[in-house]
Target: Heme NO-binding domain-containing protein
Amino acid sequence: MKGIIFNVLEDMIVEQCGMVVWNDLLKKHAPPERVYISAKSYAETELMAITNDVALMLNMPLQDVVKAFGHYLFNGLASRHVGVIKRFEDFTSLVMGIHDVIHVEVNKLYHEPALPTIISRIISPEQIEVTYRSPRKMCFCAEGLLFGAAQHFGQNITIVHTVCMHNGADHCILAIELQHD
Ligand code: MNH
Ligand code: ZN
Model:
């Protein structure tokens, strides 16, 4: 998992729980003197351990914590990669470009990033189906990222997680419903 992901997690936790909490989490779940550098890779078990602990601390379901982080992460990634986001004029075009534009760009910018396979399909002007596959099973993070993207474009959406790897499937399906008015 790239350091940039940990950098955004740090921003969120420091903002919402304070620096002391972040430092405690690091001390507990990362090797001594850990500093996350955006372009370097770190064990994703560190990310999992930190988010797990946040969920325990806040007495929240882990999936809700990961989803909230995904939402925050979109803004963190977007602000660090403005040029990538500027290629899209609306929510639908961004979702259609996750795999073939955004993550292709990420592959050029980072050395061996660990990315999911995302297939997006337009069902109708109001419906996009996103299929998610990754050994990291971070589908709730993907859901949060999609809400972050929707907010970025002022698009109201709902998502139904109709199929999930956490229920034994080999992929997840996120059925996005767009609200137009
Ligand atoms: Mn993208 C990792 C989904 C937009 C750059 N991305 C991930 C992961 C998910 C994901 C889920 C976690 C790894 C995994 O599941 O295997 N990403 C999305 C979705 C959107 C998205 C659903 C839009 C919505 N991602 C973006 C944008 C950028 C970006 C925008 C930057 C321009 N993503 C990354 C990087 C990683 C990542 C960087 C981390 C890769 C690594 O840790 O090695
Ligand atoms: Zn899932």
